[in-house]
Design goal:
single chain; 331 residues; alpha+beta; Serine Threonine Protein Phosphatase 5, Tetratricopeptide repeat; three-stranded antiparallel sheet; 11 helices; globular
C-alpha cells in the first residue's frame, strides 16, 4: 500500500471512530423514560360559571423528567384517548363526549415522543354531552371534572392511563343581565341554541348578514353578561369562515381583537390568535397576521404544530429567518 493510500485509510478510520463516538454520546444524551411518568393536568379559567355558560377545559400532558419518553398519547380529544368525566354534588362520574368522535385503532402503534420538560396542551369546550344529548352542566350545583389519558399498553395489551386530579367548579343561577340577554335573543331556548350550535346555525333561517349584525349589537348592549365571551368568540369565528356567504374577514379580525383585550385569560385565547391571524390574511392585513403569529409563538411555545400552520398560512408574507447560523443556535 502506498503512503498516500495508508494516510487515506487512517483518515477514514479516524472519521469512523469520531462518528461512532458522537453516536454513543448522542445515545447517552437521550436516556429513555417510561410513559407512566407523564403527568396529566386539567384546568379551567375560573371557579364559577353561570348556568348554560360553556365550560372550556384545558388538558395538558407534561414530561417532568430529564428523560425522553415515547408514549401512545394522542392530544386530539376526538380520538377518545383523553377521557373526561363529570360528577354532580359528589355523585357518580359520567363520561362526557364532545364534538366529532374519530375512529381509532385501539391498540399500540404511532404515538408521541416527549422531550424532557415538554408540555403538550389542548382545550375542549364542554356544553352538551354528545353521547346522551343532555347538557353537561344542566343546573346550579357543584361539579367535579376528572380525566385520564392513554399513555401506553402493557405486555398483555391492556391500556395504561395517566390520571388527573379533579377540578371543581360551581354553576350558579343566571343573573339579571344574563336573563335580559336571553330575552334579547328571543328566549332561553334560543340562547342555548346559540351557545350550543353557534351563530351559523342560530342565523340559518334569517338573512345572515343582518342576523350577525344583530348579534354584535346584542353584545354591545350586554357586554357584562357571562355569555358574552363565548358568543363573541363564536361570532368572530363564523364571520371568518371561507364558506360563509356573509363572511366579513375584517370584522372577524376586529372581534377577535376585542375578545383578546376583554378576556385575556380566556382559554379560547390560543384559537382567537390562530383564527384571527387567518382572518387578517384574508382581509388583506398580513402585517397584523404576522404580529399575531409572533404573539402566538411567544405565548404558546409548546404548540409547535399550530404555530407551523400559522406560519404556512402567511405564505409570501412569512418573515424570513435572519440567518442559518442563528437558526442553528436557536435549535
Amino acid at each position: 500500500m502506498s503512503r498516500q493510500g495508508g494516510i487515506k485509510a487512517i483518515s477514514l478510520g479516524a472519521l469512523l471512530l469520531v462518528l461512532m463516538a458522537r453516536s454513543e454520546a448522542g445515545n447517552e444524551a437521550r436516556p429513555e423514560g417510561h410513559p407512566r411518568d407523564l403527568f396529566l393536568r386539567l384546568s379551567v379559567a375560573k371557579n364559577a360559571f353561570v348556568q348554560y355558560e360553556p365550560v372550556t377545559v384545558r388538558y395538558s400532558v407534561s414530561n417532568p423528567t430529564k428523560t425522553w419518553i415515547h408514549s401512545q398519547v394522542v392530544m386530539d380529544f376526538a380520538a377518545q384517548q383523553t377521557l373526561l368525566f363529570i360528577s354532580r354534588d359528589g355523585g357518580k362520574p359520567v363520561q362526557c363526549f364532545a364534538g366529532v368522535v374519530a375512529c381509532t385503532g385501539g391498540g399500540p402503534g404511532g404515538g408521541t415522543t416527549h422531550e424532557p420538560g415538554q408540555v403538550l396542551e389542548r382545550e375542549v369546550v364542554l356544553f352538551r354531552n354528545d353521547r346522551t344529548g343532555e347538557l353537561a352542566f344542566p343546573s346550579p350545583a357543584h361539579y367535579e371534572i376528572s380525566g385520564r389519558v392513554l399513555v401506553d399498553f402493557d405486555a398483555k395489551g391492556e391500556a395504561l392511563f395517566a390520571e388527573a386530579l379533579a377540578v371543581g367548579i360551581d354553576v350558579v343561577t343566571p343573573g339579571s343581565i344574563d336573563q335580559r340577554l336571553a330575552e334579547r335573543l328571543g328566549s332561553t331556548d334560543r340562547l342555548i341554541e346559540l351557545l350550543d350550535h353557534g351563530a351559523g346555525r342560530f342565523c340559518e333561517k334569517e338573512p345572515r348578514a343582518a342576523c350577525f349584525a344583530d348579534l354584535r349589537q346584542a353584545l354591545e348592549n350586554f357586554p357584562e353578561s357571562a355569555y358574552a365571551a363565548q358568543i363573541m368568540f363564536d361570532l368572530a369565528d363564523t364571520l371568518s369562515w371561507t364558506h360563509n356567504a356573509a363572511a366579513d374577514y375584517r370584522q372577524a379580525g376586529e372581534l377577535f381583537d376585542e375578545f383578546l383585550k376583554r378576556w385575556p385569560t380566556d382559554l379560547h385565547g390560543p384559537d382567537a390568535l390562530r383564527f384571527g391571524a387567518a382572518a387578517w390574511v384574508r382581509a388583506g392585513r398580513a402585517d397584523i397576521a404576522v404580529e399575531w403569529t409572533d404573539r402566538f409563538a411567544r405565548g404558546y411555545p409548546a404548540r409547535k404544530k399550530e404555530l407551523k400552520e400559522m406560519q404556512e398560512n402567511l405564505g409570501p408574507f412569512r418573515p424570513k429567518p435572519a440567518s442559518t447560523d442563528a437558526n442553528r443556535g436557536a435549535e
